[in-house]
Structures are given as C-alpha cells and as structure tokens.
Amino acid sequence: MGEFDLIARYFTRPPRHATLGVGDDCALLSLQSGMQLAVSSDMLVEGRHFLSTTPAAGLGHKALAVNLSDLAACGAKPLAFTLALALPSIDEPWLAGFSKGLWDLADAHGCELIGGDTTQGPLNICITVLGEVPPGDALLRQHAQVGDDIYISGTVGDARLALEVFKGAVSLEAAHFEAARLRMDRPTPRVELGLALRGVANAAIDISDGLLGDLGHILQRSKVGAVIETAWVQDSAAISDAMQSVAFNKRLDFALAGGDDYELLFTASPDQADEVLEAGERCGVSITCIGRITPVAGVQVLDLQGLPLSRRFASFEHFAH
Ligand code: ADP
Ligand code: MG
C-alpha cells in the first residue's frame, strides 16, 4: 500500500459541509457570512505526549480531542480539521484503530477532515482545527476581571494520576486505575460548555499543562492575580473517586499541576453564578468554583485553614528541564 491508497482508505470521506475535501491541492470551505474563523494546531509526539504503548484508537481520539479542546476554550463551534501525519511504516491494524478513534470523535462533533499531509518518519500527529464564532463572542484569556469567580469543569488530576501509576510511583486499585487511564487516553473536549459560556464567562482557557500554569496565562494576559482555595481538592465534584483514593498532598499536586486534563478553566462575574451552573447542567458537566480573581499579581494558594501555602507547584513546560 502506498501513500495515496493509505489516504484514500483511512482518511477520505465524501465532504459534508466543505465545498471540497481531501484530494486536491487545497480544501475549500464556505463560511457563514459575518462569522470569524477560529484556528488552532496541536501536535502529539511519541515519547513526549504519549507512550508507545498507547492504543491506536485512543491516540486518534486524543489527537483530535486536544484540538477541539482549544476551540472549546474559545467558545468556537468546530467545523473542520486537517491531519498531518508522520508514520514510521504502514501498519494497517494501527491505521484502522487510529482512524476509528479519530472519526468517532469527529462525527460526535460534526467536524470533518478536509485534508492533510502524510509522510514517513517517527510517529508524529499534528492536527489543525477550524471553528467559527460570532465576532466579539470568542472567550479570550485577556478579559478576566478583578472580583470574578474562577471555575473549572469536570475533574482534574486524573490523567496525571494514571501517568504516575504507569511510572510505578503510585498504586491504585484496578477500577480506579481504569477510570484514571480513560481520562488520560480519552479526554473529553468541553465543546458544548465552551459554546454555553459565550456571554457568561469573561475569560477561559483549557487545562492542558496544569491548572495553576494555565491559570497563570489568564492572569498574565488580563494583568490580574488570583486566590485559589484547596477545600475543593479535599472533597468536591472536581475530584474523582480515583483521586480521592490517594493522599491529600499528592492529590493537591495532581489537581493543581497535573496537566492533560482538557477541562475548561474560566472566570465569570459573581452576577453570572446562576448562568454558570445552568450552563454546566445543560451540558451535563460538573462545575466547581475554586477561587477568585484579585488585583494583586500572582497566585496565592490557600490551605484548608485559609492560610497561604508556601510550597511550589510546577506545571508542565516544554524545554524547562
Ligand atoms: P500535495 O502534496 O499536492 O499537497 P498530497 O499528495 O500531500 O498533496 O495529498 C493529497 C491529498 O490528500 C490532499 O488533498 C491532502 O490534503 C490529502 N491528505 C494527505 N494526507 C492526509 C491525511 N493524513 N489526512 C487527510 N488528508 C490527507
Ligand atoms: Mg502535501
């Protein structure tokens, strides 16, 4: 099988909304008049973003999920994506699994594959997603206001917990490990929630590198600070049963700096508290308030007594070590 048969078999379907899909030098999309195009790319590299043992279908899912998560963080509706793929060899069972994981998630969000590039090389998956958002409606990092509440969706820390089990640093009972591993391999992009938060949230970001690090991007862009409580790490909807089963200090590390959560972190005025909770209910995802925006630069993490914690939490950063 050659490159073009591979593309035809695994990555080509008749276009749905696109005017022209895979097969020509460019794809063509007809945009709704007046809408803004939201564009984002994310690359997954073996050994860096996933283990060589990761099942192919999970990888297809995750490669698209992390991209859809960026659209979600902007409140953009997914339209289409491109796939640039470097493969060490043509491994058909792998391609069948990978494309199944990819198509299943793409179909769930009505997001179509319109083109890409395929080459031989160390396994590397780069997706670019295209979405649409009405002008002025995109959720941005730069609009957090002093006094805003800070919220997260879903649960945090599980992917990091699973990674620590893989590394042999933590042990978990089988059911908890399975649940945590699913969160690592099959993150859920919060696309519907992102759309529901248009006009409700002031600022948003998706949690990919770790809660505090990603919050830091909002603070920097908005020129504000934050106080983060930790009572919710002890017991709240944001802490899964698997996370509940490890010691509080580890939980604190994984929840605040774990990374790979792909939940939304956003800020909203206290006036919008009802709308925020309603958006979560409508989208079937829990929402937890974890702190508030302050005028003082930096993040202060409070312990269970409400006193400032002096320990540091390091988020994931490429080239940092
Ligand atoms: P060119 O080199 O002329 O840009 P290619 O030969 O790389 O085109 O690709 C042929 C067609 O297949 C193009 O339409 C391209 O967008 C599409 N394509 C290539 N690789 C992929 C892929 N992994 N997934 C989806 N479409 C792809
Ligand atoms: Mg090409």
How far apart the termini lie comes to: 41 Å
Highest-level CATH class of the largest domain:
Alpha Beta
Tally of strands:
10
CATH topology of the largest domain: Phosphoribosyl-aminoimidazole Synthetase, Chain A, domain 2
Bound molecules: adenosine-5'-diphosphate, magnesium ion
| Percentage of residues in helical conformation | 25-40%
Globally, the shape reads globular
Sketch the topology as an H/E string, one letter per element: HEHEHEEEHHHEHEHHHEHEE
Spatial extent as radius of gyration: 20 Å
Structural class, from secondary structure content?
alpha+beta
Question: CATH superfamily name of the largest domain?
Answer: PurM-like C-terminal domain
Features:
four-stranded mixed beta sheet, globular, six-stranded mixed beta sheet, 10 strands, Phosphoribosyl-aminoimidazole Synthetase, Chain A, domain 2, binds magnesium ion, 60s Ribosomal Protein L30, Chain: A, alpha+beta, binds adenosine-5'-diphosphate, single chain, 321 residues, 11 helices
Q: Can you offer a commentary on this structure?
A:
This protein has 321 residues and is α+β, with helices and mostly antiparallel strands. The protein folds into two domains: 131 residues, PurM-like, N-terminal domain (60s Ribosomal Protein L30, Chain: A, 2-Layer Sandwich); 153 residues, Phosphoribosyl-aminoimidazole Synthetase, Chain A, domain 2 (Alpha-Beta Complex), CATH 3.90.650. 35% of the residues lie in helices and 22% in strands. The chain contains eleven helices and ten strands. The strands form two sheets. Strands 6-8-5-9-7-10 form a six-stranded mixed β-sheet, sandwiched between helices. A four-stranded mixed β-sheet has the order 1-4-2-3. Helix 4 crosses helix 5. The longest helix is centred in the first third of the chain and has 19 residues. It is globular and about 65 Å long. The protein binds adenosine-5'-diphosphate and magnesium ion (MG).
